[in-house]
Design brief:
single chain; about 425 residues; alpha/beta; 7-stranded mixed β-sheet; 5-stranded mixed β-sheet; 16 helices; about 40% helix; globular; disordered N terminus
């Protein structure tokens, strides 16, 4: 693989993106008001403070904003863009992995070119490549995220168990936790984007550990999902389920409910992106949380973590208030804006030298990123959004015994080979 092209986890994930629909913000001003900015965001729980800081730094300016979960947002934003009712600024994912990703929205001309912004040239190559389409920068990517096992330290200490570092230890950990009446991990597979998280954590090590060039081989037609270590990763995912690593009925558990289980110690943790830490803290402020790699092999030195730029912001090419939109995006990409987001989301800024001190919960993630022991979220280099949608629905069908790993991986191959 060439320079890692980080993107936001899939299609629906991430970057704090995946939250229950809700809305908020100021409502004063008309759309034509040059002092009012319209914004659609998936950053519930963090965009609120950024909006307040932006309004404070720009007296008289008001931001009308809505927040929603990634699945809902991705369906709505395309409709709004095509009908001319989209807001000035909107959440956009890196790369090409979902319906609201950079390539997907830039290609038809929905996004304004941001290559002239002062921060665009400063983006690290790995981030810049997925913020761009046709060598032009369209997305302001302000944070990096990683996927792993997020442990409730108090619940873990109470159980008397230790976080596993090998695959064999992981299975024993799950059995021991279940025997104590507290499942190891919460899993909210009712929200279909969540189905991919555990799989991505396992694919990073099992697929890319032995073959960092796997994506290149896929693009050249020399590798497939169905005849690769993806089969091993999916088998391990199902082995975790059969071993009792998760609470009962993951398909009947929402993402929100899974957070509650982990925060209150009903499980010892949750396999998720680091963004979930910011959501767990309000549910149990007395608890502390730590993200560690989810082991997929028995040699800890071979463990690799999925890490990527999270969802950022793009500007509507037909924005009614372009000047204010540019000011907001530049604020988000300033040290103040990035650090505020990073603090609220429990992530890491994309630009260096912002003076940010990472949360102690991300110590291991920071080390893995620094040591180059990461791979991008898997969907970022896929040629179309259908591959991921097939994977997400297929995983739900596997968990409900309506499909098999072989069928799902073959279907993903068919969608991949169909191209963009």
């Amino acid at each position: 693989m060439k320079t890692p092209r980080l993107t936001a986890l899939t299609a629906a994930t991430i970057a704090v993106a995946v939250l229950a629909a809700c809305s908020g913000g100021t409502t004063s001003g008309d759309k034509g008001d040059t002092r009012t900015l319209t914004l659609a965001s998936v950053d519930q729980g963090s965009v609120e403070d950024v909006v307040k800081a932006f309004e404070k730094a720009n007296p008289g300016v008001k931001v009308r904003y809505t927040t929603s979960g990634a699945d809902q947002y991705q369906q709505q934003i395309r409709t709004q863009l095509s009908s001319g009712t989209a807001p000035d600024v909107m959440s956009v994912w890196p790369g090409n992995g979902n319906p609201a990703a950079t390539h997907v929205l830039a290609e038809p001309g929905y996004l304004r070119d941001l290559s002239d912004r002062p921060w665009a040239a400063k983006l690290p190559d790995a981030v810049k490549s997925v913020a761009q389409y046709d060598d032009k920068t369209y997305t302001a990517l302000f944070g990096q995220n990683g996927i792993g096992a997020v442990y409730n330290e108090q619940a873990l200490q109470k159980s008397g168990l230790t976080a596993p570092t090998t695959w064999t230890q992981l299975l024993k950990f799950c059995k021991d936790a279940a025997a104590k009446g507290t499942p190891a991990f919460a899993l909210g597979n009712q929200d279909n984007w969540v189905t991919q998280i555990v799989l991505y954590a396992l694919v990073a090590t099992t697929v890319y550990g032995p073959d960092r060039d796997f994506d290149t081989k896929m693009q050249a037609g020399k590798a497939t999902f169905a005849k690769s270590q993806w089969t091993t990763a999916l088998d391990k995912y199902l082995t975790m389920e059969k071993t009792g690593c998760f609470q009962k009925n993951p398909l009947g558990t929402t993402y929100e409910a899974s957070q509650q289980l982990a925060a209150t110690g009903k499980t010892l943790g949750i396999v998720q992106g680091n963004w979930v830490i910011a959501l767990l803290k309000p549910k149990n402020p007395k608890a502390t949380y730590t993200l560690k790699p989810l082991p997929g092999v028995d040699d800890p030195t071979r463990t690799i973590v999925p890490a990527a730029a999270g969802a950022g912001y793009g500007i509507n090419a037909k924005a009614k208030n372009e000047e204010l939109a540019l000011k907001f995006v530049d604020f988000v990409m300033s040290p103040k804006g990035m650090n505020l987001y990073a603090k609220k989301q429990g992530g890491l800024p994309t630009l260096p030298d912002t003076g940010y001190t990472a949360d102690p919960s991300l110590t291991e993630l920071s080390t893995f990123i620094k040591d180059g022991r990461t791979v991008p979220f898997m969907d970022q280099l896929w040629p179309n959004t259908k591959v991921q949608q097939t994977m997400l629905s297929g995983l739900q069908e596997i968990f409900s015994d309506q499909s098999t790993p072989e069928k799902v991986l073959k279907a993903m191959d068919a969608d991949y080979q169909a191209g963009g």
